[in-house]
Predict the structure.
Amino acid sequence: MSDLSQKISEFISSSLLLDSNVDIAGTASFLEAGIIDSTGVLELVQFLEETWEISVKDEEMVPANLDSLAKLEAFVKRKLGG
Amino acid sequence: MIGTLRHRGPDGRGVFVDRACGLAHARLAILDLSGGAQPMALEGGDLVITFNGEVFNYLELREELATRHGRRFATRSDTETILHAYAVWGERCVERMNGQWSFAIWDRKRERLFCARDRIGVRPFFWTMHEGRFLFGSEVKSLFAVPGVTRALDLHGLNEVLTFWCAVAPRTVWQGINELPPGCTLTIDAGQGSTRRVEIRRYWQLDYTLDETRSTEQCVEELTGLLVDAARIRLRADVPVGAYVSGGLDSSVIAGIVKRHTDTRLQTFSVTFEDPEYDESAFQREVVERLGTRHTTVNASNALIGSVFPELSWFMETPVIRSAPAPLYVLAGLVRKNGFKVVLTGEGSDEMLGGYDIFKEAKVRRFCAQQPDSKLRPQLLRSLYPYMKSLQAQPDAYLRAFFHARPEDLESPFFSHLPRWKLTQQIKGLLGKDAKAELAAHDPIEELRARLPREYAGWHPFAQAQYLESTILLPGYILSSQGDRPAMGQSIEGRYPFLDARVMDWAAKLPPRKKMLGLDEKHVLKRAARDLVPPSVLARPKQPYRAPDAASFIDPSTGKSRYDYVDEMLSGECVAKSGIFDPVAVQKLVEKVRNGSATGVKDNMAFVSVLSTQLVTHRFLDRFESEIPAHDPATHE
């Protein structure tokens, strides 16, 4: 797992989840799995902005960008211009 | 003077008088019960000290002073260690001390008085100049006991209370009375031809230069090691040491460490509340069951809070805006009743390790302010306070204004604290015409700008918020009106492992992301606490310590005052006589409380502020002479 994914995974695991045994990397949809709700997504975006010093617009807060670890990694990399 | 401080030291009394200097001491005997009497002299009387507090690393300092510098010790006390440390290292001795203290050393050869206060302001130190004499004491009342010393309220100090919740040292709420700021030393020369100028030097400050080199696991390990040792050296005493258990994370961690890492047979103490909104007894029971401590509780009913508030005002010596100090006074009384003099508590953790809601709130507000057009972000502001129905229904623009979460707010160096300070300042609407006129040009927030350290602007916003909280509210209110004063009012000494010098220095350098991961407060501490506290305590949302405010003084079920003093202090006549608040505005507020419509935080704070100011001025200005102990020879020195 990349350092970026590792950091996001650690955040979700310790800040958004009560159950520490969830396979975050293997989850296809955080929304479907009940891992992230409407408040959780804002906390997640705040974490991304704080950690990688990026800026996320309202229209970017969509499942296509945020709904799995792989999507998140791709999104952050895109924002970083990588 | 010393007669007014009997509560701080009921176990002994001592006086030293020299040609140019007099020192007095009231002793709470904790270390070296037989050999630690004060004032204590060294080197044939060339150095004499009066000292309140503890130097917890005195054994290590003593070892170094004896082996490397050949110092010989006559007692087992930490007091003597300070004298030797001063003799060897001079005024920089304080940099080596780890503890909570205020002291004064008379250096006879140099004809100089050297005074110091601990880093973060656990122990108090007040001073004034009167007719060319330098007077100092642990409490303001000891200075007022000197005939001729002016007793008058400083409205600028009150203005700070009605902004920051406390006056900010060196200012106090009393004209001409100064507080030595935490982390500072003070010297004054008394020799012939000296200017008698007071010199104040800062020897310590929180340094938020972040250390990004360590992993979270390393940080957890380091913090655990530091806290274990901080608690261990705070158990040094020749009397039994107890611990408070609030039901929250911090006190549970400390009690857990003592239980696991020392062989101390721990006794714990808790305060419970009549009102379930404030009561944490279910969590307290879980902690106590897990630790297996001997445990005692006391219930701070609303009526009891109201009942002790006047006598506590005598000890606090300042107006306060919440009733929260009162249950702690009741709790300290329980400790005393059980034969204890010393308790460990969890204070300081929220400031040092990032636990307060104000830090979380600032983070979310910043998140919102950064994108003013976002429709989604204000939802996170609402989620901070799900139980506040009015907040949920508020349109975004109002929400942003209330929380100071607009782009222009981001430019303030006080961004984190603007909502609290601006809300508190609304109480000033109750001030009378003359007081308002006198304060028209005084803006405490602007004044604070000039006092910020040079490095402040370069610190991370989270560190800036921590700095403000750790240097204003912590010493000025938490460690004073909720710490030293209610405890010492019952002759109890609080000890704070989270305020260990090493813990504070280490925590300041801990990156904000490790303090609050996302919105998970005290993240590293929680990781360190996994094996020490019950899982339910670890998982529970932080509950700020609060107590019922107006309801402690006026019974909500009847609308009637619980005690005569409430009616007396808030009467139009009494308010007019004090000349601080507008009697008509106060009557309106009191009516609102009586008819049950003063349900908000602002009205409750305003009510307690007025009552508290009235009580303090009544006792310290109107009837001070009758309050101080009579027929006490020591008061006439």
About this structure: The interface with chain A takes residues 216, 363-364, 367, 370-371, 373-377, 379-380, 383, 513, 517-520, 523, 539 of chain B (CB under 8 Å). The radius of gyration of chain B is 24 Å. Residues 550-627 of chain B form one domain. The longest strand of chain B covers residues 47-55.
